[in-house]
Amino acid sequence: MEHKKLGPARFLTPRLDTDSLLRLPRLLRADVHASLVVFLITVPLSAGVAMASGVPVELGLVTGIVGGLLTGLLPGSSIQVSGPAAGLAALVYEAVRTYGLGGLGILVLATGLFQVVLGLLRLGHWFRKVPVAVVQGMLAGTGLVLITGQLYELADADAPGGGLERLGGLVLLVTGTLESPTALTAGAVGVGTMALLALWQRWPRGVRLVPAPLVAVLAATVVASALRLPVDRLRIGDLMTAVQPPDGPDFVRLGQVGVLGTILAFTLVASAGSLLGATAVDRMHDGPRTDYDKELIAQGAGNTVCGILGALPLTTVVVRSTANARAGARTRASRVLQGVWLAVFAALLPWALGAVPVAALAGVLVALGRQLLPVRELGRLWDGHRSEVVVLLATAGAILVTDPFEGAVIGLLLAGAKAGWEATRFRADRERGAQGRADDDQMPLIGRK
């Protein structure tokens, strides 16, 4: 047998790919451009999610920075962008209302450690086995909670605490808004923001390279400032003052059943949302596919640091990830760079957020909540999988009237009951088919056709 002889230079030294070297500047330019696009989306969304979560705006910026500088560096996915997500806002709001802002850090810290352990045990792919109807129901329920809560912010009003109270108070909100010129002004700012978000998608593609949330919020800010409208604006403080690591009494809460349930809810929603989002984002680019276990570890590491800092939990943000892919990102450098730009902004220009009307961010969040509602999927499921629609709607309704954890448990129980019923029916159909074939075999030959 002849052995192919390798030259020493070829064997001992790495092969230089001239084409790759020539493409490197182009790849870097693409990543820098994508990072700037994502950064411009991240600033208003991070502030809005923090506002919807009932925490200081600065904590949303902290989570966005950690998502870029830490999670962005770790392996797992090359295009996904992590940060504070609207999908967790309702859960965080309920947790802060129950355990206070001081308890948020320990919840997020425990969630991060739990995610890291699950990733090290290579259980990341199991989160993709959560029934799609349950995941969509959780997102739909979160979207409904987000919308009902932000409708109050559109009128510069305080939202009631519980889901039923928010629903019941909508009629009074409408009548009160119609009777208050100040509330009507805030509502006009919010509705105008939503209208601009919708209209921006109809502009030419070159114009739409500028992120719609940035354009809408910036336009609302300019109009409100120029006309000196009497609307509420964001309250922004010192970034370092807002960071409050958990202390001793907070760790004692880990023994409470309610706290453990909230941690499980955080883990389920954040992990399933991130990994399902990775599947969707992978379809938008031709780069390396996501390693689900490594991505779960990266998300866990980010949440661990966010917990230490007392910030919001992070997860994959589909809006930013989609913008990152469409802007031409090629490597994880775009994720890291958007974290750098956000850190520079938080250090030097946080006061710029103080001019943003609360109603404008509420309009953006209502639009995001609308995107969480699987309206198109409902029509397709109803044609052939009506039981899936029942699970989806029941999960969403339970989250709306109770809380995200109880809604998720109800959805999982219903999905399990549905799977058991379908398995029983399949077994019964198979036994009837086998019995029918046995009866046919026993028939006299003269009686057979």
UniProtKB/TrEMBL annotation:
Entry annotated with the keyword Transmembrane helix: yes
Residues that span the membrane, as ranges: 32-52, 99-121, 133-152, 212-231, 251-276, 340-369
Membrane topology: Multi-pass membrane protein
Location of this chain's protein in the cell: Membrane
An annotated GO BP: transmembrane transport
InterPro entries associated with the record: SLC26A/SulP_dom, SLC26A/SulP_fam
Annotated Gene Ontology cellular component terms: membrane
Domain SLC26A/SulP transporter: 28-395
Protein name: SulP family inorganic anion transporter
Organism name: Streptomyces mobaraensis
